[in-house]
Amino acid sequence: MRICLIGFGAVGQGVVKIISLKKKHVKNKFNIELKVVGVSDSSGSAINQEGLDEELLLDIKSKTNKIYNYPKYGDNSLQGIELLDNVDYDCLVEATPTNISTGEPAKSLTLKAFNDKKDVVTSNKGHLALFFNEMISKAKENNVEFKFEASVGGAMPIINFSKKTLPSSEIESIIGILNGTTNFILSRMTSEGSSYKDTLEESKVLGIAETDPSQDVEGIDAACKTVILANSVLGIDCVYDDIEIEGITNITSQAIELAKKEGYFIKLIAEISKDKLKVAPRLVKKNSPYAIEGTLNMATLKTDLAGDVTVVGKGAGSIETASAILTDIINIKKTIRE
Ligand SMILES: NC(=O)c1ccc[n+]([C@@H]2O[C@H](COP(=O)([O-])OP(=O)(O)OC[C@H]3O[C@@H](n4cnc5c(N)ncnc54)[C@H](OP(=O)(O)O)[C@@H]3O)[C@@H](O)[C@H]2O)c1
User: Fold this and answer.
1) What is the domain-level CATH number for residue 266?
2) Looking at the structure, do residues 101 and 9 belong to the same domain, yes or no?
3) Residue 13 vs residues 37, 53, 67, 110, 120: alpha-carbon distances, Å
4) DSSP 234
5) Cβ neighbours around 151 below 10 Å, total
6) Range of 246's domain?
7) Alpha-carbon Rg of the chain, whole angstroms?
8) Do both 225 and 299 map to the same domain?
9) CB-based burial label for 291 (10 Å; 0-12, 13-18, 19+)
10) 143 and 121 housed in the same domain
11) Structurally, how many domains does the chain consist of?
């Protein structure tokens, strides 16, 4: 399986790290030979049809921050989409930043790969939240696979889980916590009695919140995931603008304290059903599955036959997210292409 990786930040580097760690295991267990033949960041590329050395890729990126410094095979004239015409590959792994205004560069990269009859695995949410149906139809038109487990909940299995493990049941709704940063902030405000502003600053220092945390705290990130789950699991045709969104920026420590006294926590909850597509702070009971702490994600799937099924997992992190990408790659090769 020849992999072309575009986006070499936290997730992209995680993918290369776990390919290095797991390629023998993947070969022995699934008879799949993983080879990274092209990598691009925002400044250039590295290409070798024989396979790039994973450790060297990581070393060059960490020391110089520019992948085109890769000895002999680096190229600063080829970036992003141009790489796709200059490398023979089987699967594009797309891990560029989420862009909720245009979905780019993920949208163009993905459509180009589809057009060239290549499979695509992504952790990106922007193009899916804005153009879900278009992306899926183009993949079908070109008879290629498009997988995006990592885009919702990082390592928390939910999309493949719903499709492969629960096919006998109809999934009526999903209610969950789909953003780890806000869950961390609300958990700390609850345990420490601290204000929203102070807790947000603490989260930035700990590296949990980004310098610009607006996508998380305003509910945008959770809303993107809501669109992806609504379309892919519940078959609801919707886009980002259909989601009712309220973030956590107005939650006060007093409101949290009051809720706590009555046996409740305040959580940023995504509700996904035919009647409701909403992300907003909600009261949840202290001993319910929604009372998870820290950066964890969770989701309860309400089914007609199996009752409520709850999944919990790490919603972010380089290796955790990369693990979902590698699962998608293995599934494409193992269950579809063979
Ligand atoms: N981090 C997580 O835990 C996590 C979890 C789930 C999903 N995701 C999603 O996964 C994606 C990647 O996240 P991340 O945390 O790895 O982001 P990141 O650390 O910001 O890395 C983004 C990478 O994309 C590269 N890039 C930007 N524009 C590009 C372009 N036009 N062509 C080629 N490369 C380009 C950047 O290049 P430079 O290195 O040169 O800046 C960087 O290597 C995002 O869509 C994010 O929402 C992340």
Assistant:
1) 3.30.360.10
2) yes
3) 14, 13, 11, 19, 17
4) T
5) 27
6) 162-314
7) 20
8) yes
9) middle
10) yes
11) 2
Ligand 1 pocket test, pick from 68, 79, 159, 321 with the greatest ligand atom count within 8 Å of Cβ, gives 321
Q: What is the pLDDT of residue 338?
A: 63
- pLDDT score recorded for residue 334: 85
Tokens of 203: 């989260």
pLDDT of residue 335: 73
State residue 79's pLDDT score.
84
SS3 category, 319:
helix
> Nearest Cα to 109, choosing from 209, 240, 7, 204?
7
- Are 36 and 178 part of one and the same domain? no
Question: Residue 243 carries which DSSP code?
Answer: S
| Threshold 0.85, pTM exceeds | yes
Q: Which helix (H) or strand (E) holds 116?
A: none
The whole-number mean pLDDT for each consecutive block of 10 residues of the chain, a chain of 338 residues, reads 97 98 96 97 97 98 98 94 96 97 98 98 98 98 97 95 93 97 97 96 92 95 98 97 98 97 98 98 97 96 97 94 97 79
Please work out whether the CB of residue 67 comes within 6 Å of at least one atom of ligand 1. Answer: no
> 23, 107, 147, 225: which one is catalytic?
225
Angle (nearest 5°) at CA 331 between 92 and 148: 55
Instruction: State yes or no: is 27 an active-site residue.
Output: no
Q: How many CB atoms lie within 10 A of CB 66?
A: 17
In the reported structure, the alpha carbon of residue 259 is separated from the centroid of ligand 1 by a whole-number distance in angstroms of 37
Ligand 1 binding pocket mutation candidate from 15, 123, 295 (most atoms within 8 A of CB)? 123
Question: Which of 68, 75, 73, 111 has its CA nearest to residue 92?
Answer: 111
Do 168 and 294 have their domain in common?
Answer: yes
Angle of the 253-261 helix axis to the 180-192 helix axis, nearest 10:
70
Pair (76, 183) in one structural domain? no
Q: How far is CA 163 from CA 123, 158, 325, in A?
A: 18, 9, 17
CATH code of the domain containing 325: 3.40.50.720
Please give the order of strands across the beta sheet that includes 91-94.
74-75, 45-47, 35-40, 2-6, 91-94, 119-122, 146-147
